[in-house]
Amino acid sequence: MTNRFTSGNAALGLKVIGAVLILSFLLDFLILLLPFQPTDRGWQINLATALVDRGIVPMVGLGSLLTGYWIDGASDGGSKGIDLRFPAFILSSILGLIFLLIFPLHLNNVNQAKAQTVTQISQEADQAESQLKNQLNQFQAQLNTDQGKAQLEQLRTQARGQFSELLKDDQKYKQALANPQLPQSQKDLLQKFKANPQELDKFIAQQTDPQALASQRLSQIRQRKEDAEKQARDNAWKSGLRIGMSSLLLSIGYIIIGWTGLRGGGALQTGGRKVAAR
After folding, report:
1. Furthest CA-CA distance within the chain
2. Crossing angle, helix 270-277 and helix 56-76, to 10 degrees?
3. For residue 200, how many other CB atoms are within 10 A of its CB?
4. pLDDT band for position 55 (cuts 50, 70, 90)
5. Helices (H), the chain
6. Contact at 8 Å (CB) between 262 and 87?
7. Which of 40, 57, 84, 165 is deepest in the core (most CB within 10 A)?
8. Residues 6+ apart with CB under 8 A from 149
9. Can you say how many angstroms the Cα of residue 37 is from the centroid of all Cα atoms in its chain?
10. For residues 29 and 25, what is the distance between their CA atoms, to the nearest angstrom?
11. Residue 51 DSSP SS3
12. Could you please report the per-residue DSSP string of 151-191?
């Protein structure tokens, strides 16, 4: 008697847990649909990702629910109350089809989103290069005038004077090297200038050469473009692999549970008949 009472409580607890997990997933599913934007690719990707991340919850709920009914059947030959097994198998089959559809749709959406992102990155990089070339042409046109040449020479003279003053004053030079806020790259330059003053003239000439600065800036733009494109491809590959494979596995699991249960659906009524026969 005690064992039958304990089994009944365990079965009821498992059924309640299973029902709560399934209902919570369905509620999440309805909330995730809002705002409903089926034509938006980003919305589709986010929805698929959220559903797959939560996809194991109803499977655990189904397992708990069916285990509860199994305990009922093993203890007294039948279940009491409303039999939820047939609706659970229907729901499992539907979820299996949904996750099966998510697999190719998500891969297609991710690939299209990646292509769009790469195209946008390329367009922004081309625009930045075009702006840089225009600025370089304007600056070079200014340098071709006597006023532009004089301003450039004045700028070089001021920079050379500031560095020379620092290098000649040993106290300021040592303080600069000991300054923790000064980057190590700048400290290395100071040491190089101290050892060879001609390096200072080369450095100032490079830093005030518009063509060299433009080439450096152009290299930075292209490097950022390559890094952004690589990140977009990596993100798409990771998302497609993780969500796609998880969706496929969930689909297989739900289809097996649903179709196996529906194929043996006639046995669901056996427990009730046994109770009536007794």
Report:
1. 113
2. 20
3. 19
4. very high
5. 2-32, 41-53, 56-76, 85-143, 146-168, 170-178, 184-195, 198-207, 210-263, 270-277
6. no
7. 84
8. 143
9. 21
10. 6
11. helix
12. HHHHHHHHHHHHHHHHHH-HHHHHHHHH-TTS-HHHHHHHH
Q: How far is CA 256 from CA 4, 56, 62, 90, in A?
A: 31, 14, 12, 12
CB 45 within 8 A of CB 84: no
What span, in angstroms and rounded, lies between the C-alpha atoms of 135 and 198?
A: 30
Secondary structure letter of residue 54 according to DSSP:
T
Ramachandran region, residue 225 (left: φ > 0; alpha: ψ -120 to 50; beta: rest): alpha
Domain ranges of the chain: 2-120+227-277, 126-223
Q: What is the pLDDT of residues 216-232, one digit of tens each?
A: 889 999 999 999 999 99
Better-predicted residue by pLDDT, 9 or 86: 86
Query: The tokens of 229 are what?
Result: 């494109």
Structure tokens that stand for 235 in this block: 């993100």
pTM flag (> 0.70): yes
